[in-house]
Amino acid sequence: MKIQREESLKIQSIDNKSRYLQDVIQLWGQNRKTLGLFPKDAFKERATKQEILIAVDSEAEFAGYLLFRTSFNRITIVHLCIAPLHRGKGITKKLIDKLKKITKDTHEGIGLSCRNDYGLDNMWSGNGFIPKWEKSGRGKNGKTLTYWWFDYGHPNLLSIVVNQKLESKLCVVIDSQVFFDLYADESLDNEESKLLLLDWLEYELELCLTDGLFIQINSIENKEKRKLYRQFAESQQFTVLPSKSDNLDDYQETLQKFLSQKNILKSEINFHHLVRAIVSDSHIFVTTDSRLLNIANEIYENFKLSVIRPKNLIVQFSEFTRNPEYQPTRLSGTSLEQVIIKKGEEEAITNYFYCPDQNETKAQFQQKLRRFLTNPENFTCFKVVDAENKPLALIVYGKHNDYELEIPIIRVADNPLSATLAQHLIFKSILHSAGENRQSTIINDCFLQEQVNQAIQEYQFIQVNDNFIRLNLAVVETADQLSKRLKKIASNSEKQYNFFNKLAKSIKQESFIHNVQESANIERFLFPAKIIDAEIPTYIIPIQAKWAKDLFDEGLANQHLSLFAAKSELAFNKEAVYYRSAKTNGKLKAPFRILWYVSIDPSYVYVGAIRACSLADEVIIDKPENLFQIFQRLGVYKLSDISSINQDKEGNIMAIRFSYTELLNEIELRTIQKILNKPKITFQSLYRVDNNVFKQLYNNSTK
């Protein structure tokens, strides 16, 4: 007997002149008892219409066939038969996959009738088919037939109705056990599931099923029970979500592998229902199954499906609607505010932020947002609004993992500030993540706008599969310590952090700490990490409060917001420029760190202190008017402001372009004097500090 490899098989259609037509008829004859009567002339008719697919191996040996017919916009499988010597080699799937490929763009789906006693349920369901109904066969024995259906998911009247529900309510998929609990009479065993039927939820919550539930119903032995459960599932009480066949096979394979790693068998859960929930437009799976609830965080991380108990869903729903929680936050001293989004605002902001140009529907966007709004323990949804309360940006923080800040949605509305605002939100997210001692920020919005993509690249996120990841390590360490930390992160993570292994090796090299430019590049890449033995110079630079508030210090800017609101396009810049005299600092060379000492000013509080840390990217010495032309887009200075700075004998001043500014807890002058052991020092000009002093000052500011 020949050993046949699956990859050597070829699937092709035949016509009525094909030499394989007789092989088809002969194989049917050998299996007539199972396949049923079929006139030989009908084979020729199907072949003429090219409605017979065959499988042949590399030596052109016939291995099996699939015969189908078309009726309006549906395909019906009439025969599917594999030659005995070729069974168990995946030929059935290849034939079905070929049929799907050649008919998916022109038809609604594929149907077939199959006798229940043939025991082929797993084969059909494994290929994505759903049992829709049962009927008695025409033979004198009247054997029960099940009609199986594979839907291509094209829009139709039903999907339009479902879409309308998705736009107006939070749609959650309930698992099979919750479904059976809702059908049963009330008892202590199903009390939790019955909470989903509370009257006040009727206008807030849509209980959804996937057609995968019908596979489990079909496995119930009692025919009358199967009928009753189907009727209940198809009642007005539930919405059956449209099938999504794209990538279903890939998700089935990935989910099966994931579950096996968790020692959960497919047979122990409703696998087909779960995988269809993953690919559906609902992102919440309500279950009482402890096996799934125990790995809920991992399911979300791998499949972006929130798994939750019925009672927890209800609690989060009610708590969120009562929570008066959060006050708006002014952004960088501008008139813009960052506001927590409340449940019920989804429809009002949809038109600003959904992405129809990327084929995202309103329903898809609203379901994602509702999923996050109803889980405030793990997600916080913000919008940025202008003075007229018009939405300008949207960002969602996910905090289900202690080590990572997730951003599942980040959008900007179409306005002149969109690109700058995208950069600002991402930078603030990095700082927020680091401030909570999370080691990374991950952006996994599937519909990234061009402005957001540019901001992601600007802040040097690394693409890993469909995610963008950035480390943001809040550490002050030597290069050796940082190298070990990166190796540990790479080895402990399930994500593809190979790049960080390479980075660890480069930092470990002896020459690294002596290369100032490369060290500064790594500090930017791992911001806010500081490499304490790198030879990056650090200077304390004094700055007047009025300039600090406009260049980087939103705390100071907010103190004077009633008098002056900063121009948003300047306040949100990731970089800025500071001008000073070049007389005594002509040899200053970038890159270097800056500790900003904000001078005492009676108009402000919490000054006379170090308030921020930045990286200097460039130092230019030139005439005031030339520098003004170069950096006008970055500055809040007028030409008259910089022309008044003390000039050297050539009439030049200094411009310092800086970025990656991190606001610190203020370090008062007396604390600085104590660390420097200089009780009378004040800061009138640049003051260089060594790495040990920098470490003490920085650590003091981040306590």
TrEMBL record:
Looking at the keywords, is Transferase present? yes
A Gene Ontology molecular-function term? acyltransferase activity, transferring groups other than amino-acyl groups
According to its UniProt entry, this protein's organism is Calothrix parasitica NIES-267
Which keywords does the record carry? Transferase
Task: State the protein's name.
Answer: GCN5-related N-acetyltransferase
Query: Boundaries of each N-acetyltransferase domain copy?
Result: 14-167
Say if the entry is tagged with keyword Transferase: yes
Q: Which Pfam families does this UniProt record tie to the protein? A: Acetyltransf_10
In terms of Gene3D superfamilies, this protein maps to:
3.40.630.30
The cross-references to InterPro entries, in alphabetical order and at most eight, read:
Acyl_CoA_acyltransferase (IPR016181), GNAT_dom (IPR000182)
